[in-house]
Specification:
This protein has 249 residues and is α+β, with helices and mostly antiparallel strands. It is built from nine helices and nine strands. The strands form two sheets. Strands 6-5-4-9-8-7 form a six-stranded antiparallel beta sheet, sandwiched between helices. A three-stranded antiparallel beta sheet has the order 1-3-2. α2 packs across α3, α5 runs antiparallel to α9 and α6 crosses α8. 34% of the residues are buried.
């Protein structure tokens, strides 16, 4: 593979350019990409031009850059998340119609939860997660479910910290986190009032395929006395989705 004069491969630079974009920054200037990717402006300009010719990036009328449709097409065509999302969407839609607010699906990716699908409704309580957005595993209900069922070595690495905090309720103590994960495994759900935002409660359950936890199905609802009553419909939906994934595996 070709390498730059600094010894860094071209592929590494391409990845750094893609990683410059995020849920809060879907459109960037070349200068912003260079700063975020920590690459020389001339290098970024040349690579952006080439990636645009291949459809991996695209420019708008102001010459700003975004991820190209061709990149989305290639990612969706071979994505291991495609079947999970396609199977989950009808179940999430039914749950959404009953619960309102936000319904979301997250998967384990490294030491974070990656949200791959999300439904919301007008007037929903604040929800900081987005599709293709990430959160630390210790912070959200989906993250706690995934961490509770993660391989032991990964679980140990995360539990030992550092543990980022969003509010005073976020679990940032190793002993508390260990006890919470054991509780999640025993009860079959995570219940997190105010862990990400004081006004919101996160609730999540595991989604299994042939016995293995492959995702977390979650709700983000108001942090009030009604939140606890939503655990049961969430659990029933999680079980139905798990059966569907296991049947058609």
């Amino acid at each position: 593979m070709a390498r730059s004069s600094s010894g860094e491969s071209v592929l590494t630079r391409v990845v750094r350019i893609f990683e410059s974009f995020g849920p809060d920054s879907p459109v960037l200037t070349v200068s912003e990409i260079g700063r975020r990717a920590r690459l020389p402006l001339a290098t970024v300009s040349r690579m952006v031009d080439e990636m645009t010719r291949h459809g991996l990036l695209a420019r708008d009328e102001r010459r700003r850059v975004r991820i190209g449709t061709r990149m989305w097409e290639l990612a969706e065509r071979a994505s291991p998340m495609l079947r999970l999302r396609e199977t989950a969407v009808p179940f999430m839609g039914d749950l959404q119609s009953v619960v309102g607010h936000s319904t979301q699906l997250g998967v384990l990716d490294g030491t974070e939860v990656l949200f791959v699908e999300r439904f919301t409704a007008p007037g929903s309580v604040v929800n900081l997660t987005r599709i293709a957005g990430r959160m630390p595993l210790n912070a959200s209900s989906s993250g706690l479910v995934l961490l509770a069922h993660a391989p032991a070595d990964l679980r140990e690495r995360v539990v030992r910290g550092p543990l980022p905090a969003f509010t005073d309720a976020t679990i940032v103590d190793e002993r508390t986190l260990r006890a919470t994960l054991a509780d999640v495994r025993a009860r079959g759900f995570a219940f997190c009032p105010g862990h990400v935002h004081p006004d919101a409660t996160g609730i999540a359950v595991p989604v299994r395929a042939s016995g293995q936890v492959v995702a977390a199905l979650g709700l983000v609802v108001p942090n009030d006395d009604q939140a606890w009553s939503l655990i049961r419909p969430l659990q029933l939906t999680g079980l139905a989705l798990s059966r569907a994934l296991s049947t058609h595996r």
